[in-house]
Design brief:
By secondary structure, the chain is an alpha/beta fold. It has three domains: 7-140, GMP Synthetase, Chain A, domain 3; 175-287, Beta-Lactamase (2-Layer Sandwich), CATH 3.30.450.90; 295-562, Rossmann fold, CATH 3.40.50.300. It is 40% helix and 23% strand. The strands form four sheets. It has a seven-stranded mixed β-sheet with strand order 12-11-13-14-10-15-18, sandwiched between helices. α17 (436-442) runs antiparallel to α19 (515-522). The longest helix is centred in the N-terminal third of the chain and has 20 residues, at 144-163. It is globular. The protein starts with 6 loop residues before the first helix and ends in a 6-residue tail after the last helix. The relative contact order is 0.07.
Length: 568
């Protein structure tokens, strides 16, 4: 029988925290409504491991360290991942007809009472730190092991088909073949990609095997190695779903299809490319009907956000979002569109391709193969009486000229451009054929952005910087603007798959056109324009924000400098 004690009392009795700390934590808990253990950790009074060891010692329960090798996978899978996260409890083994369950909080009576019923028998509790349980969930419920089993089953089917001279690539392609191993293998791969928050899936034949890689937070990581004989069957099944020619393996093809994965509807963009060892397949995964970010939730600094919102409210002019591929430009554009009143504003978009469907907005897919490029769509859109137009990308002089003309004739035009920073956007447009005078009249605001990876909170540790990194931080923040003791890196753990990073956020600089910059453009004085623009961004640049993210321990200096956030 578990004594009716509260967590705060247990920790105080054990000497883990004192009376003053408990009082401060309870006051903060009343203000925030958060769990006491979380509040104590946030205040720095204790940590997950100390809490778990104290509970185990005081209540005389075994302590479970959270090592994956100590977990029986079959027993753990008696609970779904959702159940484990909800109950903060995982079955880890069984002995003598009783199930051993690792729990975070044995004083959560409602959850503890559910365990015998759900497991169909008596349970023995062991105490596990909260962070260790979260890392264990990612290990135990990782679908990689399941995929390997499905891969072996599919490979055996292919081996039998080879022996009987059947068409290997046709396995699992027939209607009603949903239970075929190759189909279940691909479904498992989509499930794992969605669980991992992957943006892309790469299937790459390598001669002796097939490498499956996932791009998570902008970085590729190897997910699994499969037998080479699976490559043709996987490629054929995917091409069938995308409506492509499964017999054509000498030419690149691209298409799209929709799948269901982990209760999500996923729009898949498929691209195949013939390689030395077979067809390389890359799939871009897009959530249909996602929770699109609001403009004020992206993390744009307050000064830049106000400039951008003002430009959108004016209802006319050119607003640009710049940055390299994969820097989140499309997310910012969609958030900007979401800030407009679609009910009273006629909004049209030209995209290649349309990534997300937006209610109340007319969206057009660019199709260069039939002569429907950005400039053609833009010209046609201007005859549709639009108030605002979003062009996916300014790629050529014709599109640039048409966008600028639309902006100076009373339309709000939003688009993207590939430049390193906001200052370079005007020069880039002039190089593409824009007339400086017209550009000065049309251009309102330029947003430049990057995505920077976040140090994993579960394995963060202090880190020393190199002399070059220290010089970079000092040049941006000053000698007193950062402390080496605040810098962090992730040493790598199960939760972050050994990368040291978990998640990303945006860094933004927003250039708001002023009279001095407009005057410089109209006089075709690009040098003066650059000087004025850099002066406006001083203390608000991408580099400055990157340095701030490093100084706060959010990311590492190496990461900030890797993505190109340097002093310019």
């Amino acid at each position: 029988m578990i004594p009716k004690l509260r967590l705060g009392e247990l920790l105080r009795q054990a000497g883990t925290i004192d009376d003053a700390q408990l009082k401060a934590a309870l006051e903060r808990q009343r203000q925030t409504g958060r769990r006491l253990g979380t509040v104590l950790k946030d205040l720095g009074f204790t940590n997950d491991e100390d809490i778990a060891r104290t509970i185990a010692r005081q209540l005389k329960f075994p302590y479970f360290p959270g090592h994956a090798e100590l977990v029986d996978p079959a027993t753990a899978r008696r609970f779904t991942e959702v159940q484990v996260r909800k109950l903060k409890a995982m079955p880890v083994g069984s002995e003598g007809g009783r199930t051993r369950v690792a729990v975070v909080d044995p004083m959560d009576w409602q959850a503890i009472d559910e365990l015998p019923r759900l497991l169909g028998g008596e349970v023995d509790l062991e105490i596990i730190p909260d962070s260790a349980l979260m890392a264990l969930i990612d290990r135990v419920y990782n679908d990689n092991l399941v995929l390997q089993g499905l891969a072996k089953e599919a490979s055996e089917d292919l081996r039998v088909a080879q022996a009987s001279s059947a068409e290997i690539s046709g396995l699992g392609l027939q209607a009603g073949a949903e239970d075929a191993p190759i189909v279940r293998l691909l479904q498992g791969l989509f499930d794992e990609a969605v669980r991992s928050r992957a943006s892309d899936v790469h299937i790459e034949p390598q001669g002796q095997n097939v490498t499956v890689r996932l791009r998570v937070d902008g970085h590729l990581r190897v997910h699994s190695e499969l037998e080479s004989r699976l490559a043709p069957a996987m490629s054929s099944r995917l091409k069938l779903l995308a409506g492509l020619d499964i017999s054509e393996r000498r030419l690149p093809q691209d298409g799209r299809f929709v799948v269901q994965a982990r209760q999500h509807t996923v729009d898949v963009r498929l691209s195949t490319l013939p390689s030395q060892h077979g067809e390389s397949v890359v799939m871009r995964l897009l959530m249909k009907d996602p929770l699109l970010a609001r403009l004020d939730k992206l993390g744009i600094p307050e000064r830049g956000l106000k400039s951008l919102q003002t430009a959108l409210e004016q209802g006319a002019g050119l607003v640009l979002v710049t940055g390299p591929t994969g820097s989140g430009k499309t997310t910012t554009l969609y958030a900007a569109l979401g800030a407009l009143d679609a009910a009273s504003t006629k909004i049209l978009t030209a995209e290649d391709p349309v990534e997300y469907r937006l209610a109340g907005i007319t969206q057009v897919n660019v199709q260069d193969r039939i002569g429907l490029g950005f400039s053609q769509v833009l010209r046609a859109a201007l005859r549709q009486d639009p108030d605002a137009i979003m062009i996916g990308e300014m790629r050529d002089a014709d599109t640039v000229e048409t966008c600028i003309r639309a902006a100076v004739t009373g339309h709000l035009v939003l688009s993207t451009l590939h430049t390193n920073d906001a200052v370079s956007a005007a020069s880039r447009l002039v190089d593409m054929g824009a007339t400086p005078y017209m550009l000065g009249t049309a251009l309102q605001t330029v947003v430049a952005q990057r995505l920077v990876r976040r140090v994993c909170s579960h394995c963060a540790e202090p880190v020393a910087v190199t002399p070059a990194q220290a010089g970079w931080l000092t040049s941006l923040l000053g000698a007193d603007g950062w402390q080496e003791s605040d810098l962090r890196r992730g040493k790598g753990c199960a939760r972050c798959h050994g990368t040291g990073f978990d998640g990303r956020r945006g860094l933004y600089e927003v250039l708001d056109m002023n009279q001095d910059m407009v005057s410089a453009l109209m006089m075709k004085d690009m040098g003066r324009f650059t000087t004025e623009a850099r002066a406006q961004l001083s203390g608000h640049s991408l580099a400055w924000q990157g340095a701030q993210a490093v100084a706060s321990g959010y990311t590492t200096a190496a990461e900030a400098m890797r993505i190109g956030v340097r002093q310019m």
